[in-house]
Amino acid sequence: MKRKIIFFVTLLTILGLITIQSCKKAAPVATGSRLAAMPASPAPAVDAVIPFTGTGQSINLTWSGTATDAIKWDVFFGTSASPKLAASGVTSDSYTATITKGGVYNWQVSTTDAFNLTTTSPVWTFDVNSNPNVPTSPIPTLNKTGVSCTPTLRWAATDPENDALTYDLLLDVAATPTAVAASGLTDTSYVVTSALIPFTVYYWQVVVHDPYGGQSVSPIWKFTTGALPISAFTGNYNADEPAEAYSYGVSFAMVTSSTIQTTNYWNSSWTAVFTLDFTNLTYTLPLTTFQTGWTGEEAGIIEPATGKMVGTYTIWQNGAVAEQGVHTYTHLK
Question: Which end of the chain is more exposed for a tag (fewer CB within 10 A), N or C?
Answer without folding.
Answer: N
